[in-house]
Write a structure and sequence with these properties.
Layout: H1 12-38, H2 44-71, H3 80-86, H4 99-127, H5 130-154
């Protein structure tokens, strides 16, 4: 039996940038889950539910990014220590924090992921890897929409 192997346009720059996007997305998912668990106050129900939707969406995104790496014949990084070393997302405060502080911290995290998604998009564009570029564009759009929502929450507080 003979098979034809398709050759994705893999470069070290694309796979490195995609691994960083994976690590940042995983970290943001974890930080969003932390906010979901620990948020308190008058907006608890609203934020608790919003954070859950966000971390569930991020869980799917992490899988999609990792599977894109595998489709490129690159092994996806994993494990908390490995992903933490690769991630640029700042950790949220541990324990008690004001709801607005959780929201502000998640804004910072989403901005970091937009930046890493942009870097991966640019690397993929230079390599002519339209599929990875498309994935990155979709991720950036999702994070920009979430940023709009989180920033809107903080207005007039």
């Amino acid at each position: 039996m003979t098979t034809t192997k398709t050759s994705p346009k893999t470069t070290d720059a694309v796979s490195t940038a995609l691994a960083a996007l994976l690590a940042d997305s995983y970290s943001l998912m974890s930080q969003t889950h932390l906010a979901h668990w620990n948020v308190e106050g008058p907006a608890f129900f609203e934020l608790h539910g919003a954070f859950q939707k966000q971390y569930e969406e991020l869980f799917g995104a992490v899988d999609e990014i990792a599977e894109r790496l595998r489709a490129m014949d690159v092994y996806a990084p994993g494990g908390l220590q490995t992903l933490a070393k690769l991630s640029s997302v700042t950790q949220l405060p541990q324990g008690k924090a004001a709801a607005k502080d959780f929201v502000a911290g998640l804004i910072d995290g989403h901005e970091t992921v937009v930046a890493s998604g942009g870097a991966a998009r640019e690397s993929a564009g230079k390599a002519g890897d339209l599929e990875t570029q498309d994935l990155c564009i979709k991720r950036i759009q999702t994070h920009e929409k979430t940023l709009w929502m989180l920033k809107s929450y903080l207005k007039n507080l």
